[in-house]
Structure formats: C-alpha cells, structure tokens
Structure of spleen exonuclease:
Amino acid sequence: MNAKAGPPELQVLGTLAVLWLGAVTLAYVLWQVRLPPTCGQLHPEEGPTGSRGHSSSLAWEPLGGEAGQQPQDSCRLVLVESIPQDLPSAAGSPSAQPLAQAWLQLLDAAQESIHVASFYWSLTGPDIGVNDSSSQPGEALLQKLAQLLDKNISLAVATSSPSLTKNSTDLRVLVARGAQVRFVPMRKLTGGVLHSKFWVVDGRHIYLGSANMDWRALTQVKELGAIIYNCSHLALDLEKIFQTYWVLGAPRAVLPRTWPQNFSTHINRFQPLRGRFDGVPTTAYFSASPPSLCPHGRTRDLEALLAVMGGAREFIYASVMEYFPTTRFSHPPRYWPVLDTALRTAAFNRGVRVRLLVSCWPHTDPSMFPELRSLQAFSNPVAGVSVDVKVFIVPVGNHSNIPFSRVNHSKFMVTEKAAYIGTSNWSEDYFSSTSGVGLVVSQRAPGTRPAGPTVQEQLRRLFERDWDSRYAVGLDGQAQGQDCAWQG
Ligand SMILES: *[C@@H]1O[C@H](CO)[C@@H](O)[C@H](O)[C@H]1NC(C)=O
Ligand SMILES: *[C@@H]1O[C@H](CO)[C@@H](O)[C@H](O)[C@H]1NC(C)=O
Ligand SMILES: *[C@@H]1O[C@H](CO)[C@@H](O)[C@H](O)[C@H]1NC(C)=O
Ligand SMILES: *[C@@H]1O[C@H](CO)[C@@H](O)[C@H](O)[C@H]1NC(C)=O
Ligand SMILES: *[C@@H]1O[C@H](CO)[C@@H](O)[C@H](O)[C@H]1NC(C)=O
Ligand SMILES: *[C@@H]1O[C@H](CO)[C@@H](O)[C@H](O)[C@H]1NC(C)=O
Ligand SMILES: *[C@@H]1O[C@H](CO)[C@@H](O)[C@H](O)[C@H]1NC(C)=O
Ligand SMILES: CC(=O)N[C@H]1CO[C@H](CO)[C@@H](O)[C@@H]1O
C-alpha cells in the first residue's frame, strides 16, 4: 500500500501527461500495457451493462472532441459549502455556493428519482431535543423531500445501521410518504460504518461532500462538497457505488467475495472520465472504501489520495477533521504512517509546499497533537522543506446549546493539479473498514477562451481563505492541544 513513488506511479504520471496533450494513440498503447490493479484488475473489454452508462469510449476521447458526447451531458460543477453561523469571513473573500441553497436547487431539478447515501439522519431540532432557529433549513429540506415524494418522485435512502440518531423521526416521516430506506449493517459486514454522503438525482446530477443529513451541517458545521449537474456518465458511475450499499442493505445480505460484473467500472484513476465541464477540459473519477466495497475497476479511496499527493509538484493543501498516522478503533492500536509518509515525501523529495488544516473542537482527542507537532517539526525552510500545520477552531459563541456542532467537518485536499473531495477522516480505519467515497477532479484552463478559474484553483482559494483566517491557529498558538476552546 506504500507504493507511492515507484516506477508504476511514474508510468501513470507519464500517461496522464501524455493525455493532457491529447495524444490518444500513445495513451492507447500505454493502456494496453498492464497497469497496476486498482481495487481489482481492469477488464477493458467488459462493458458495464446499461445503456447510457458506457463510459470507456468517452474516457478515451481526445480533449476537445465533442463527437460521441451525449447532448444531455454538458456537465457543470459547482463547489458548495456551509459556514457555521456567526463566523464572518473577511468581506470580499472567496466563497462557494451555500449548501442549504444548493441542496434545494438540486432537488428542484429532480423529476424522477433521488438516491441518498447517508451516515445518519437528523434534520429537525426535535430529533436531538434542541429548540434553535438554526434548525430551520434542515426542516425545510425534510419538507421538500416529502413534497417530492407526494409528486411521485421516488426516494431511496441507504443509511448506516445501527443508527446514531435513535430519536430522529425523519426517515419514518419519509417512509410514510413512500420512500424506500435500507439500513446497511456495516459493523457486521466490515466492522465499520456507512460514512458515505452523496446523492444521485435522476441518474444525471450528483452531490458529494462532507455534510451529513443533519440540520447542523447547514448552519453550525463547516462543510465542503460539490454538485455536478447534467453529467449522466458520472452519475451512473456513482449510482453503482450506491447500489453496493443498496444490495448490502437487503435482508440477510452478505458481503460478496467478488462483486457481480454490473457493479464494475471503467472510470477510475487510470481512466478518468474525460470531457468538458462548462467548456473546460476536465477529468474526474470516484474512489471508494473499504476495499471490500470496491468492485472491479474501482479505485480505492486511499489510493486516490496517494495518487493526488504523488502528482503534486508545487503544493498540497489539505483540510481534514482529524489526522492520525495510526488506527483509531482497533485494539491494540497500530502505527499507520501511509498518508504521513506521503506528505513528508512530497515535501522532502519534491519541494512541495505542504499545509495541513485540522479541526479542533472540544471533542478532539488530545493525542492527535503530538502527531501534528511531529509533522510540523519536519519543516525545514532552509533546506527547502516546507510543512505547516494549523488547527481550525470554530468559536462556540452563543451556540453552546447545540451539541456536536461548531466544528470544521470538511475533508478535502487540493494541489496545483487536482481537487479531492472526500468523506473520510485521515486515519487507517476510514480506509480499511468504514465506507467512504472520494471525488477527484482536475481541470485544465483552456488557453484560448476566457473561462472561470479551474476547480482546483477555486478550492485553493477557499483553503487559503480558511488558512489565513483568524480561526486557523498555529500549533504554538493558543491551541496547545488541551481543549480547543476559542479564546479570541
Ligand atoms: C441541464 O441541461 C439542460 C438542457 O439539457 C438545461 O436546460 C439545464 O438548465 C441544465 N441544468 C443545469 C443545472 O445546468
Ligand atoms: C432521546 O429521547 C429520550 C426520551 O425522550 C431522551 O431522554 C434523550 O435525551 C433523547 N436523546 C437525544 C440525543 O436527544
Ligand atoms: C422554541 O423557542 C421559542 C423561542 O425561542 C419558543 O417561542 C417556542 O415555544 C419554543 N418551542 C418549544 C417546542 O419549546
Ligand atoms: C403517482 O403514482 C400513482 C401510481 O403510479 C398514481 O396513481 C398517482 O396518480 C400518481 N400521482 C401523481 C401526482 O402523479
Ligand atoms: C446488478 O444486477 C443485480 C441483479 O439484477 C441488481 O440487483 C443490481 O442492482 C445490479 N447492480 C447495478 C450496479 O446495477
Ligand atoms: C449570538 O451572537 C451573534 C454574534 O456573535 C449575534 O449576532 C446574535 O444576535 C446572538 N444571538 C443571540 C440569541 O444572542
Ligand atoms: C471523525 O473524526 C471525528 C473527530 O475525532 C470523530 O468525532 C468522528 O467520530 C469521526 N467520524 C466517524 C464517522 O467516526
Ligand atoms: C452536526 C454534525 O454533523 N456533527 C458531526 C461532526 O462530526 C462528527 C464526526 O463525524 C460527528 O460525530 C458529528 O455528529
């Protein structure tokens, strides 16, 4: 798992570079060469079943070639975020579309079906016994879903079992209106939880991000995600991940030793979907975890992270909720330096500027701080090794009545080449037993016509906004690893 800078990696980087130039012939030749396996071996000949889902032709289409692209596939990507209430950013600073607004807009686009993969549901104040006006956007979302069910739009929900929120009535309300809900017993199946958070709407629009189906995710927690509209190729691929949960949520389901062929994918790290998003040449793929939920061709989440880190030549900026180069839930705990090593290697071997922004809130395990200080201590600017760690503290302010909120929950990483948006905390368990998904997108600014900033540029600006804000503090500052209470 530790293969980061070995020859196969270089070979793949070479492949990508060639693809950027649009030299499809050479790429095709390289494709024939045995590439290292992703979750399973790639089987280029076997097409996924289903009509519009065939992706491999598009995957190898030269950039700029519109031929063969379905007219309905004019993908459009929008970054979305939640900023906790009363956390003012500097005026004029960059921002993404507010998540609450973006979700309602996405539901407005729904005509047939909505599939939701979720950790838990808690969309109303009473669900957790809190009376606070900031629960209103969550309640509006629940109402909207109920209205869509009344309009015969189907809703299928896969969610983790046992549920975290026993008091929540959300799913019962939706089932009474006709929603289908399956509880996926991840603890029994893989020893983890279903931690994925995404939507597939009409098999053509998607949302993916850090936000739980929780009203606090809309007003009290910092979240980041992406919505991609009008992109059936990607949507049908994400739907295959949804289907893995759906079948595991059926009564008496067992983890298949090998997933049936119709779950396999051709869209992955080696063959990302290639197309134009709003006219901008784009590659994109999804990763998944744990490995047992990766059918043939699906890139593992950990592998995607390592590939994005390994590809960086200028900077790696990552925002995560927690960072442990160890296991978290297994006993006895084990050291697990995979991501830590990748960051240090990038900084040391390639002079990549590494910045890690980790969340800090009253529930933070203080044993994270020695690990963060160790990473920070690796920095040696004189020798050209630049590694910086800060913690992000959301002031509780007058919101102390709301439990488990006021925290940065986003999980993303950005380099000069790619944006990664995921759902996993950064410690071993999230990649070995917990189910998660990641989206890796890379855009190339078209030289010719004016276009907005690429997705990685947009994400870099959001990261720098947070990094430079007063809520991000260095390890020698006020966050001495004790309680992460805001004293500003
Ligand atoms: C999706 O594409 C249709 C046309 O095919 C267009 O009318 C619609 O506005 C697009 N939706 C978004 C959100 O871009
Ligand atoms: C759930 O409901 C029970 C009984 O009403 C209550 O005692 C408990 O505090 C509630 N739990 C939460 C998390 O709101
Ligand atoms: C919630 O709080 C508001 C005012 O803060 C109050 O008017 C209302 O009665 C409360 N609702 C419940 C169910 O306690
Ligand atoms: C919803 O579907 C049912 C059965 O398919 C049908 O009887 C009903 O009229 C439909 N309602 C609407 C609003 O389309
Ligand atoms: C594959 O086929 C099986 C059986 O028809 C079905 O239950 C499953 O949902 C399909 N999987 C996908 C990803 O479509
Ligand atoms: C909470 O604090 C914010 C700013 O810190 C203020 O605008 C708001 O009015 C306060 N709300 C209450 C109910 O005190
Ligand atoms: C992710 O990390 C946070 C912070 O330590 C922790 O509270 C949370 O339980 C983790 N997520 C899951 C799904 O376990
Ligand atoms: C409101 C909310 O989403 N809180 C969550 C913050 O993140 C931790 C870890 O994922 C969850 O346990 C909380 O429920």
